[in-house]
Amino acid sequence: MATLRRLREVPRHLxxxxxxxxxxxxxxHRHLVETHYHNYRVSILIPECGILSxxxxxxxxxxxxxxxxxxxxxxxxxxxxxINTFVxxxxxxxxxxxxxxxxxxxxxxLPDGKLxxxxxxxxxxxxxxxxxxxxxxxxxxxxxxxxxxTMMSYFSNYQIQEHQPKIALSTVTELQCPVLQSSALRxxxxxxxSAPELLDWxxxxxxxxxxxxxxxxxxxxxxxxxxxxxxxxxxxxTITGFILPEKICLLLEQLCHYFDEPKLAPWxxxxxxxxxxxxxxxxxxxxxxxxxxxHLYNFVIFNNQDYWLQMAxxxxxxxxx
Length: 321
Fold this sequence. Notes:
13 strands; seven-stranded antiparallel beta sheet; single chain; alpha+beta; RNase_P_Rpp40
């Protein structure tokens, strides 16, 4: 019975919501994007839009490539040649692929050159390294993201494959959408929805869930929060792969300029999901999977340059910065 109760428990998470303006000197938006290193998916939603601008579409199409290197020994990441060729340039990230963070040995290379090892007890004792116990208690494929095409030639002695991110573009019509006010992060009774309500709605939209709570729908009982409005159309863009923080910074900057000319949309969103089995979330904050493995953030960019920032991790992770 205890096991059954645990299975029925809804995974808990930590959610931090804050409001600022891109023009403020102390705005943290760029720093928080740059220190969330291992990004798996980027999703953009633009209300009342039927096609991406040329500038934004070019950025979306230029987010790759990234590379798979099979059976790469860990010592290759600490050679002088590798450090001089990639690490010192500050644009190289790496992550073991197809590992379970709570069970397997996992390695992550951060852009600042730090190598994070999440090891099981036996491997840790064999290495003789000094470390600390994880709160989440073999050689694998390594996934890399780097600016230079020299990655292919550098690892030519190994099985290396170049991959491009998968890009999905679509338009949704007659979309029921929450009403937001940039000044009302917590919402306002009968006037505006809150930031957490919006985040739930975005998850449903990008999952292509029905939002009408029909009695004969046995897959989803979710409905759009109130108050709401109906969008004639909305443009959805999803990029899936291994996406560098600097690429996301460029996308965010371009979305900030979306309202340089008058638009029907009052706001747009940029959502970023990290790899569920990355050993870190932001900076060097330890991350585990447990029941969900989530570590993600979302920007709501308003037409007056105000923005909401929502950051979420699992309940056992450190609080988002």
